[in-house]
Amino acid sequence: MKRILGIFVLLIVVYLATWVMSDLMTGRQSFLSAFNQENLLRRTALFGIIGIGVAFVIMTGGIDLSIGSVICLVGVGFPWMVTELNVPLGVALPLVVILSLLIGLSHGVLVTFLRLQPFIVTLCGLLLYRGLTRGLTNDQTAGFQGEFKTLRWFANGEIPITSGFGLPVPLIILILIAVAASIFLNRTIYGRYLLALGNNEDAARFSGIDTKRMTILAYVICSFLAGLGGLLFVLDTNSAQPVDFGNFYELFAIAAAVLGGCSLRGGSGTIIGVIIGTALIQLLRNMITLVDYIPQNIEFAVIGAVILAGAVGDEVAKQISASRKQT
């Protein structure tokens, strides 16, 4: 809880700093404009969905590097099917959902039954799914060509709050997912099983927990939310290129989860922490874009530093906890 409070305070500090450097020091109103605030909330919601997914895997002590490629496969594959192959919408949607679930299932089976390292399994997935997408579409951009406006409302629509500001629909979707995930982790026996698995897999297995089933479940949830994210991302942008759609999105998701208190060793983490971590990452990206004297090409350096800081903080917290137990 202290770590979540700390990251929330940092979020407020960065928010105020961005406002000062972008608006007050330049005399503009770019950061606090309704358009920018709505966009910031929308991006936080979209990345928060995939962040919650990877948090489930990290809590088991695993990792998923294939998220960006799953987003690419679904985000490019869905409009390609409905526009190029003329697959009915009622068929294409269930297909991409089932595909996302099967990807997670395959990851979980390879990790549990074949005892392959999650890093290797999902790294191969990262290469496989993007390569498959590029091959199927011949590297051509896929889009909705101005159609399916009703469906696209779920990604780029908004619920009016005032005359100049609306609540992005993806934020509502994120809240629903976050509530469901929190109830699962904190109010069900399976959530306790999942955290116990991350703390000590052997002890969890000896206590009667089906650790293989829980690990598979975590990867299925992760891939399902990555697929949902891919749908929402492409519905928001209207088109996607298989070469770069979803590139490095797994890094944003992992960084948000680690910042939000998910230990890379597993066994700990909160959904609200992941959302706050996601908001901080997107706020930092927004700061880099809006503040003139911050080079925009250092974005990935900032994300790398954030992940490193989270890993260092995790290690320091572990050592402090161990020393207190010894005394």
Mean pLDDT, to the nearest integer, reads 91
Total count of helical runs of at least 4 residues: 13
Strand order of the largest sheet: 1-4
Percent strand = under 5%
Give descriptors for this structure.
two-stranded antiparallel ribbon; globular; two-stranded antiparallel sheet; 327 residues; 3% strand; 13 helices; mainly alpha
What does the model show?
The chain is mainly α and 327 residues long. The protein has a domain at 51-158 and 171-285. The protein has helices spanning 2-24, 34-59, 67-84, 89-112, 118-137, 149-156, 169-187, 189-199, 201-206, 211-237, 249-259, 271-290, 299-326, and strands at 142-143, 158-160, 166-168, 239-240. A hairpin with a 5-residue loop joins strand 2 (158-160) and strand 3 (166-168). Helix 2 packs parallel to helix 7 (169-187) and helix 11 (249-259) packs parallel to helix 13 (299-326). It is globular. The mean pLDDT is 91.
Q: Could you outline the blueprint of secondary structure elements for this entry?
A:
Layout: H1 2-24, H2 34-59, H3 67-84, H4 89-112, H5 118-137, E1 142-143, H6 149-156, E2 158-160, E3 166-168, H7 169-187, H8 189-199, H9 201-206, H10 211-237, E4 239-240, H11 249-259, H12 271-290, H13 299-326
Antiparallel strand pairs: 1-4, 2-3
Helix pairs in contact: 1-12, 2-7, 2-10, 2-11, 2-12, 3-4, 3-5, 3-10, 4-10, 6-10, 7-8, 8-10, 11-12, 11-13, 12-13
Describe what is shown at a glance.
β2 and β3 form a beta hairpin. This protein starts with a helix and ends with a helix.
